[in-house]
Amino acid sequence: MGRPMWHLANQSDERAQDRGKTARRLIGELRPYKRTMLVVLLLVVVSSVMQAIGPWLVGLAIDQHIMRGDLPGLARTMILLFFVYVVGSLATRAQSRRIGFAGQEILASFRSRIFERFQHLPLRYFDSRPAGDLISRVVNDVDTINQLLSQGLTQLLGAMFSLVVILATMLVLNLRLALVSFTIIPVMLLTTSFFSARARRAFRRTRETVSNVTANLQEEIVGVRQAQAFNRTEENIARFRERNAANRDANIQAVGITSAFWPTIDVLSTLATAIVIGYGGYLVFHDELTVGLLAAFLIYVQQFFRPIQLVSQVYTQIQSSMAGAERIYSILDEEPEPPDPPGTPTLSSVRGQVRFDHVTFEYKPGQTVLHDVSFTIEPGQTVALVGHTGAGKTTIANLIPRFYDVAEGAVLVDGHDVRSVTRPSLRKWIALVLQEPFLFGGTVADNIAYGREGATREEVEAAARAVNAHDFISKLPEGYDTNIGERGATLSQGQRQLISFARAVLADPRILILDEATANIDTRTELLIQRALGTLLEGRASLVIAHRLSTVRNADLILVMQNGRIVERGSHHELMERGGLYADLYNRQFRDAPARRRSPSTEAAPNPS
After folding, report:
1. How many CA atoms lie within 13 A of 388 on its CB side?
2. Does the pTM exceed 0.70?
3. Quick check: 3 pLDDT over 70?
4. N or C: which end of the chain has fewer CB within 10 A?
């Protein structure tokens, strides 16, 4: 059964209100440029007035000079007409330059505000949104708004003022002929309304489809190695073609609507011209209108529809910009991570004790991930988390630096609930090394120095030596000044991981979190890191998440996770003697150890999950 009519009407009203709100907010972006906009408005008025004076001078030249054979008077009027059009052209150029400057400022402001909002949004926001879609909003959607503000706005303002001036001039010159000419206006308004509703939906669809294309492209470029390895290139090409075709079809539909609008306005313009010629000719025959005034009216009718035609050209831009603005404001309206309340204390010094006190956590309401988790990491102690994928190990790691807040219980650092201290002062004492290290485009030194602002080159090199990374860095083409490319593409997985370890050492944290940091590296590199771990872990509270159980046998405490709960705890020997889940994981992982020892190519232990 269909929805009630009142419900559909309410939805339509809500959409109209949303569009109106978006338009008002977009216009509000010009508020800091009031002086520029006042100058632009003045220039628009000058340009419109000059445009209206032109046809009147043409009519004057016909009636007062051509019809009477006054050649000197005709020359004077033509010089004046030339001056009028030059002034109008200069005014139009000046207004375009000024509004273009304001448009570029707003463009930069939009991108800065969006990026700033990204930096302050909670991680939950990024969990369910592809990076390509967000990039599309920063680049493509903002660019559509820039086109509107830099070009379309002046054209729109000029068209509006021109219409007003032309209408007023026609009414003053001959009221009857003007009113007859205006009979076409209701048809024009209905036509505009008809196309407007359809174009708005079409251009909203184009913004959505181009976002899908960008998101898919970003993902497939990053994953091209996997696509080739699994022979999925043809499937990826087909999927991209499908999304690309959807974007093409959406744009074709949008262009089809706007392309139909312009010829319709042309037909109405021709009809209005015919009306003016017919009725104006009748008035000339009865000596109620001069030939020059009729010629002026014909020019005015053409000028009257020229702004409408101009709007049809800008129409695509306007609708696309409004759709882009809706998507941009949806980001800017997202609630940022709640700021620390005024007066929130800071952690000026940290020994490194971490305590989980009956912690329960859920990413989404009703979907509990951790159930009543309690344990303590003392300063200088290493605690390992093991268990199958999805058991909740990484979630525990994310709660210590307060990337998420617990639903029940508390996470405490040196007895302080992490929610009761400022985030920057908390995270200052924590370093995180992930399974997939993230390196920034730039030099090796820049990436290591990212661990501590203002670090000297000597401190960077000392950190690299501490994790046995100095030797391989020294052999790079430019040593520490080698550019490693996007995400460290020119380095091996092990080299990237060693740099991330050096970054953590340089940060000198009191709490160190290693989230499967040795899972994707070769055995030789793992041995280098194992030697560095003594330096890295010394005096620090360390949480080590590992699938490769050989890396956690020497941990002070091993916690075995299953379905969001700690099901076993103890040292390696205690857990092995107990014969529970940990022993099962360990035995299954190492049952082929003799075969691996005989075959160097299989030194790395398999992932138990």
Report:
1. 10
2. no
3. no
4. N
